[in-house]
Amino acid sequence: MAAKGRQSEPTHVRERYQHLFEGDGGRSQPMLHKLGIEIQDFGTMRLLPIALSNEVRARSCQSLNRILADTQILYSLYKKHHWLMRGLTFYQLHLLLDKHATEQLELVDLLAERVQTLGGVAVGDPRHVAEITTIPRPPDGAEEVLAMLSRLLEAHEIVIAKVRDAIETTANDGDTGTNDILTSDVLRTNELQVWFVAEHLVEQP
Ligand SMILES: [Fe+2]
User: Fold this and answer.
1) What digits encode the pLDDT tens for the residues 26-49?
2) DSSP class of residue 135?
């Protein structure tokens, strides 16, 4: 017999996990394989008392999620190229690209937690990220070294363009907290990384 409180689970789930419903763990049986309903839809806003209108917070969250999706892709691109690097400058680039990946991952967390702070839902699942990003997908195989570096620079510029737009919008909206993160952290990190990568694409005598 199904335990009380588990009646809402679909029949096929009860059949599959019958051993759990009939377990004799008392009140300490871990509730495994719980099926949940979505309690906040993506794109909707919770009302948090931070003296910013719903409209402003929603606008900021939409921009942040687009930048967050691109930043997750840029992080993955850095890791991929860190692994696939080759050639005479292998070690130097291998280390540099990993450093940039780590810094991008810090931005991912910063952006996601800003979305949550504003009452939104941060994009997290890579498959959802892939639907939102506008950074072109690289080939699954390895590209030439210069092409890998050039691809990183193009991805940076896509992110930076969105960040500049969002900096302007959040300034007009009075969303200073988001504006500060975008300017001090996201923009400056991306600009600096562009410099470090771009210097490898200069022809040397
Ligand atoms: Fe590594």
Assistant:
1) 778 888 887 778 999 999 999 999
2) S
Tell me, in angstroms, the distance from the centre of ligand 1 to residue 61's CA: 32
Neighbours of 147 (CB within 10 A): 13
Q: How far is the CA of 124 from the centre of ligand 1 (A)?
A: 22
Q: What is the dihedral of CA 44, 162, 160, 176, to 10 degrees?
A: -60
Distance between Cα 76 and ligand 1 center (Å):
12
Structure tokens of 95?
């280390």
**CA separation for the pair 95, 114 (Å, rounded):** 29
Return the exposure string of 85-103: e unless at least 16 CB atoms fall within 10 Å of the residue's CB, then b: beeeeeeebeebbbebbeb
- At 97, which helix (H) or strand (E)? helix 90-117
Report residue 171 as tokens: 């300034």
- Across 72-100, average pLDDT: 97
